[in-house]
Predict the 3D structure of the following.
Amino acid sequence: MPSLPQYSAVVPAAGIGKRMQAECPKQYLQIAGKTIIEHTLTNLLAHEQIKQVVVVLNANDMSFAQLPIANHTNIKTVMGGQERSDSVLAGLNYLSEDEDWVLVHDAARPCLAKSDLTALLQLANQGNVGGILASPVRDTMKRSVGLKTNQQNVVKYTESRENLWHALTPQFFNCGTLRKALTEARNKNVEITDEASAIEYLGEKVILVAGQASNIKITQPEDLLLAEFYLAQQQAK
Ligand code: C5P
Protein backbone atom coordinates (compact mmCIF):
# COMPACT_ATOMS: atom_id res chain seq x y z
CA MET A 1 0.00 0.00 0.00
CA PRO A 2 1.45 3.45 -0.88
CA SER A 3 2.38 5.49 2.21
CA LEU A 4 0.06 8.33 3.17
CA PRO A 5 1.24 11.94 2.61
CA GLN A 6 2.80 13.53 5.70
CA TYR A 7 2.22 17.09 6.89
CA SER A 8 3.58 19.52 9.47
CA ALA A 9 1.28 21.24 11.95
CA VAL A 10 1.74 24.69 13.49
CA VAL A 11 0.15 25.19 16.92
CA PRO A 12 -0.08 28.85 17.97
CA ALA A 13 0.16 28.91 21.78
CA ALA A 14 1.57 32.37 22.39
CA GLY A 15 -1.66 33.99 23.61
CA ILE A 16 -2.23 34.95 27.21
CA GLY A 17 -5.95 33.99 27.37
CA LYS A 18 -7.31 37.00 29.24
CA ARG A 19 -10.92 35.77 29.11
CA MET A 20 -10.19 32.75 31.34
CA GLN A 21 -9.36 34.89 34.40
CA ALA A 22 -6.80 32.21 35.30
CA GLU A 23 -3.36 32.51 36.89
CA CYS A 24 -1.66 30.91 33.89
CA PRO A 25 -2.33 31.00 30.10
CA LYS A 26 -5.33 28.80 29.37
CA GLN A 27 -3.40 26.10 27.50
CA TYR A 28 -1.67 25.19 30.79
CA LEU A 29 -4.90 24.60 32.74
CA GLN A 30 -5.49 20.93 33.52
CA ILE A 31 -8.20 18.63 32.23
CA ALA A 32 -8.26 15.01 33.38
CA GLY A 33 -4.72 15.13 34.76
CA LYS A 34 -3.04 16.74 31.75
CA THR A 35 -2.68 20.30 30.50
CA ILE A 36 -4.90 21.40 27.62
CA ILE A 37 -1.91 21.79 25.30
CA GLU A 38 -0.74 18.22 26.06
CA HIS A 39 -4.14 16.87 25.01
CA THR A 40 -4.02 18.99 21.84
CA LEU A 41 -0.51 17.91 20.87
CA THR A 42 -1.12 14.25 21.73
CA ASN A 43 -4.14 14.27 19.40
CA LEU A 44 -2.11 15.69 16.51
CA LEU A 45 0.92 13.43 17.03
CA ALA A 46 -1.33 10.36 17.17
CA HIS A 47 -2.40 10.95 13.56
CA GLU A 48 -0.33 8.94 11.08
CA GLN A 49 -0.22 11.86 8.61
CA ILE A 50 1.29 14.41 11.02
CA LYS A 51 5.08 14.23 10.88
CA GLN A 52 5.93 17.13 13.20
CA VAL A 53 4.32 19.88 15.27
CA VAL A 54 5.78 23.37 15.57
CA VAL A 55 4.55 24.92 18.83
CA VAL A 56 4.64 28.71 18.88
CA LEU A 57 5.28 30.05 22.39
CA ASN A 58 5.12 33.40 24.11
CA ALA A 59 8.54 34.97 24.76
CA ASN A 60 7.79 34.79 28.52
CA ASP A 61 6.64 31.17 28.48
CA MET A 62 8.28 29.22 31.31
CA SER A 63 5.76 26.38 31.36
CA PHE A 64 6.05 24.47 28.10
CA ALA A 65 9.61 23.26 28.68
CA GLN A 66 8.47 21.68 31.99
CA LEU A 67 6.00 19.35 30.27
CA PRO A 68 7.13 15.80 29.36
CA ILE A 69 5.78 16.27 25.81
CA ALA A 70 8.30 19.10 25.22
CA ASN A 71 10.94 16.35 24.75
CA HIS A 72 9.02 14.54 22.02
CA THR A 73 11.24 14.17 18.94
CA ASN A 74 8.52 15.43 16.60
CA ILE A 75 7.88 18.64 18.53
CA LYS A 76 9.75 21.85 17.79
CA THR A 77 9.23 25.26 19.41
CA VAL A 78 9.55 28.83 18.11
CA MET A 79 8.74 32.23 19.59
CA GLY A 80 5.42 33.92 18.71
CA GLY A 81 4.35 37.51 18.09
CA GLN A 82 1.88 40.20 19.07
CA GLU A 83 -1.12 38.85 17.14
CA ARG A 84 -2.15 35.30 16.44
CA SER A 85 -1.29 35.79 12.74
CA ASP A 86 2.26 36.89 13.70
CA SER A 87 2.61 33.70 15.74
CA VAL A 88 1.37 31.54 12.86
CA LEU A 89 3.80 33.26 10.46
CA ALA A 90 6.66 32.58 12.89
CA GLY A 91 5.67 28.90 12.84
CA LEU A 92 5.48 28.82 9.04
CA ASN A 93 8.88 30.48 8.76
CA TYR A 94 10.38 27.60 10.75
CA LEU A 95 9.20 25.11 8.11
CA SER A 96 11.29 24.27 5.09
CA GLU A 97 10.48 26.01 1.79
CA ASP A 98 9.50 22.67 0.22
CA GLU A 99 6.61 22.03 2.60
CA ASP A 100 3.61 21.62 0.39
CA TRP A 101 0.65 21.90 2.78
CA VAL A 102 0.41 22.92 6.42
CA LEU A 103 -2.09 22.43 9.21
CA VAL A 104 -2.71 25.18 11.80
CA HIS A 105 -4.50 24.23 15.03
CA ASP A 106 -5.22 26.23 18.21
CA ALA A 107 -3.44 25.03 21.35
CA ALA A 108 -6.72 25.62 23.17
CA ARG A 109 -8.71 23.01 21.20
CA PRO A 110 -8.01 19.69 22.93
CA CYS A 111 -11.07 17.74 21.69
CA LEU A 112 -10.31 17.35 17.97
CA ALA A 113 -11.69 14.05 16.66
CA LYS A 114 -9.31 12.00 14.52
CA SER A 115 -11.97 11.46 11.85
CA ASP A 116 -12.40 15.24 11.44
CA LEU A 117 -8.66 15.70 10.98
CA THR A 118 -8.56 12.89 8.41
CA ALA A 119 -11.47 14.49 6.49
CA LEU A 120 -9.73 17.90 6.43
CA LEU A 121 -6.42 16.42 5.19
CA GLN A 122 -8.26 15.05 2.14
CA LEU A 123 -8.34 18.63 0.76
CA ALA A 124 -4.65 18.49 -0.19
CA ASN A 125 -3.94 18.65 -3.91
CA GLN A 126 -7.58 18.58 -4.96
CA GLY A 127 -7.38 21.71 -7.07
CA ASN A 128 -8.04 24.23 -4.29
CA VAL A 129 -5.80 26.06 -1.81
CA GLY A 130 -7.38 24.43 1.25
CA GLY A 131 -10.03 24.83 3.87
CA ILE A 132 -11.09 24.64 7.48
CA LEU A 133 -13.17 22.60 9.89
CA ALA A 134 -16.40 24.44 10.61
CA SER A 135 -19.78 23.84 12.20
CA PRO A 136 -23.11 25.41 11.20
CA VAL A 137 -24.46 27.86 13.80
CA ARG A 138 -27.40 26.53 15.83
CA ASP A 139 -28.71 29.51 17.75
CA THR A 140 -30.53 32.55 16.45
CA MET A 141 -27.85 35.19 15.96
CA LYS A 142 -28.31 38.71 17.35
CA ARG A 143 -26.25 41.75 16.43
CA SER A 144 -26.01 44.22 19.33
CA VAL A 145 -25.68 47.98 19.13
CA GLY A 146 -22.22 47.75 20.69
CA LEU A 147 -20.60 45.12 22.90
CA LYS A 148 -20.18 46.01 26.56
CA THR A 149 -18.79 43.36 28.84
CA ASN A 150 -20.72 42.99 32.13
CA GLN A 151 -23.29 45.61 31.13
CA GLN A 152 -26.72 45.56 29.57
CA ASN A 153 -26.56 45.15 25.78
CA VAL A 154 -29.34 45.89 23.30
CA VAL A 155 -30.24 44.06 20.07
CA LYS A 156 -29.77 46.03 16.86
CA TYR A 157 -31.16 43.28 14.62
CA THR A 158 -31.32 39.51 14.08
CA GLU A 159 -28.73 38.11 11.66
CA SER A 160 -29.89 35.48 9.24
CA ARG A 161 -28.61 32.09 10.38
CA GLU A 162 -28.68 30.78 6.84
CA ASN A 163 -25.24 29.81 5.52
CA LEU A 164 -23.56 30.91 8.77
CA TRP A 165 -20.76 28.75 10.21
CA HIS A 166 -18.43 28.74 13.20
CA ALA A 167 -14.84 28.68 11.90
CA LEU A 168 -12.93 26.06 13.90
CA THR A 169 -9.39 24.78 13.64
CA PRO A 170 -7.51 22.90 12.27
CA GLN A 171 -7.21 25.02 9.14
CA PHE A 172 -5.29 23.39 6.30
CA PHE A 173 -3.77 25.30 3.39
CA ASN A 174 -1.14 25.24 0.73
CA CYS A 175 1.89 26.46 2.64
CA GLY A 176 3.18 29.01 0.11
CA THR A 177 -0.28 30.53 -0.37
CA LEU A 178 -0.82 30.85 3.38
CA ARG A 179 2.58 32.50 3.87
CA LYS A 180 1.81 34.98 1.10
CA ALA A 181 -1.71 35.67 2.46
CA LEU A 182 -0.56 36.32 6.04
CA THR A 183 2.36 38.48 4.91
CA GLU A 184 0.23 40.61 2.56
CA ALA A 185 -2.52 41.02 5.17
CA ARG A 186 0.06 42.11 7.74
CA ASN A 187 1.66 44.60 5.35
CA LYS A 188 -1.74 46.13 4.61
CA ASN A 189 -2.88 46.12 8.28
CA VAL A 190 -5.89 43.95 7.48
CA GLU A 191 -7.44 42.40 10.59
CA ILE A 192 -6.93 38.64 10.46
CA THR A 193 -8.56 36.43 13.09
CA ASP A 194 -7.86 33.07 11.49
CA GLU A 195 -5.81 31.71 8.59
CA ALA A 196 -8.89 31.45 6.37
CA SER A 197 -9.51 35.19 6.61
CA ALA A 198 -6.04 35.83 5.20
CA ILE A 199 -6.75 33.42 2.32
CA GLU A 200 -10.11 35.17 1.71
CA TYR A 201 -8.25 38.48 1.63
CA LEU A 202 -6.17 37.08 -1.26
CA GLY A 203 -9.44 36.31 -3.07
CA GLU A 204 -8.92 32.53 -2.90
CA LYS A 205 -11.66 29.99 -2.17
CA VAL A 206 -11.78 28.45 1.33
CA ILE A 207 -13.53 25.06 1.58
CA LEU A 208 -15.70 24.40 4.67
CA VAL A 209 -15.45 20.84 6.00
CA ALA A 210 -18.25 20.13 8.49
CA GLY A 211 -16.66 19.07 11.77
CA GLN A 212 -17.96 18.05 15.17
CA ALA A 213 -19.19 20.84 17.44
CA SER A 214 -17.29 19.11 20.29
CA ASN A 215 -14.09 20.66 18.89
CA ILE A 216 -14.47 23.63 21.26
CA LYS A 217 -11.91 26.33 21.91
CA ILE A 218 -11.41 26.71 25.65
CA THR A 219 -12.34 30.34 26.20
CA GLN A 220 -14.43 30.63 29.36
CA PRO A 221 -13.91 28.82 32.70
CA GLU A 222 -17.05 26.69 32.13
CA ASP A 223 -15.53 25.23 28.93
CA LEU A 224 -13.14 23.10 31.03
CA LEU A 225 -15.89 20.75 32.29
CA LEU A 226 -17.34 20.40 28.82
CA ALA A 227 -13.93 19.55 27.36
CA GLU A 228 -13.38 16.95 30.09
CA PHE A 229 -16.69 15.33 29.14
CA TYR A 230 -15.85 15.25 25.39
CA LEU A 231 -12.37 13.85 26.04
CA ALA A 232 -13.80 11.07 28.23
CA GLN A 233 -16.29 10.22 25.47
CA GLN A 234 -13.54 10.09 22.82
CA GLN A 235 -11.32 7.92 25.02
CA ALA A 236 -14.20 5.51 25.68
CA LYS A 237 -14.64 4.92 21.91
O1 C5P B 1 -7.10 34.36 21.95
P1 C5P B 1 -7.60 33.24 21.11
O2 C5P B 1 -8.41 32.25 21.89
O3 C5P B 1 -8.27 33.66 19.84
O4 C5P B 1 -6.29 32.45 20.64
C1 C5P B 1 -6.33 31.36 19.75
C2 C5P B 1 -4.97 30.67 19.72
O5 C5P B 1 -3.98 31.56 19.18
C3 C5P B 1 -4.51 30.26 21.12
O6 C5P B 1 -3.98 28.95 21.04
C4 C5P B 1 -3.46 31.32 21.45
O7 C5P B 1 -2.44 30.85 22.33
C5 C5P B 1 -2.87 31.64 20.08
N1 C5P B 1 -2.25 33.00 19.99
C6 C5P B 1 -0.90 33.11 19.63
N2 C5P B 1 -0.30 34.35 19.57
C7 C5P B 1 -0.99 35.45 19.87
C8 C5P B 1 -2.37 35.36 20.23
C9 C5P B 1 -2.98 34.12 20.27
O8 C5P B 1 -0.25 32.09 19.37
N3 C5P B 1 -0.37 36.63 19.82
In short: The chain has a mean pLDDT of 94. The first helix runs from residue 36 to 45. Residues 12-15, 56, 80-84, 87, 106-108, 217, 219 surround cytidine-5'-monophosphate (CB under 6 Å). The chain has one domain: 7-232.
